[in-house]
Amino acid sequence: MRKTSLAVAVAIAATGLFAAGTAAAANSPAPGSFNVTANVQGSCRVTSTSDIAFGTYDPADVNASTPLDQNGSVSVRCVKGIAAKVALDQGQNGSGTCAAPARAMKEATSNELLAYEIYSDSGHASAWGCDAGNDVEFTAAASNADTVLTTYGRIPAGQDVGLGADFSDVVQVSVTF
User: Fold this and answer.
1) What pTM value is reported for the model?
2) CATH says 44-176 is which class?
3) Which helix (H) or strand (E) holds 150?
């Protein structure tokens, strides 16, 4: 009888282990989860510029009564949805203020000045400067595309300037957001 009781006890114990193993196998693999997070940094940067290359200015003939116009551009990339402001300083030879820029190119050997202006509109009505009243504002439509802003340059007609082959200036661009 002891053999039978022992055999029954072993069978019951084995059944219990089998049931426990089945229950553990039902929860395998055990479910779990984790979070994935990120923060998008707000940023803007000037990605490229193109020069305003006026070419030849002739104050005694063609440009005696007609200004000389030429365009360039400033490309800016910002994170989508950022409202940005693009300002242009007065250049290295400017004598005005941010509100009323008075830009000039300087001839390399004679130091003579040739006045010019940069506008934010093709009608040359809005001088592009470096304060809240005359900077250029936009809201970025996409993070992976540049916003290209045209710079409308003009040398006023009839300036009393001497011969010079190397008139130039450098204008700094800044972006705030």
Assistant:
1) 0.80
2) mainly beta
3) strand 147-155
User: How far is it, in rounded angstroms, from Cα 84 to Cα 145?
Assistant: 14
Half-sphere exposure of 75 (CA within 13 A, CB side): 9
91 to 18, 30, 117, 118, 120: CA distances (angstroms)? 86, 67, 10, 11, 16
* CA distance linking residue 19 with residue 21, whole number of Å: 5
E strand spans, 6-141: 44-50, 68-78, 83-88, 103-107, 113-119, 136-139
Phi, psi of 117 (to 5 degrees): -140, 160
Question: pLDDT tens digits for 60-114?
Answer: 999 999 999 999 999 999 999 999 999 999 999 999 898 999 999 999 999 999 9
pLDDT tens column, 120-145:
999 999 999 999 999 999 999 999 99
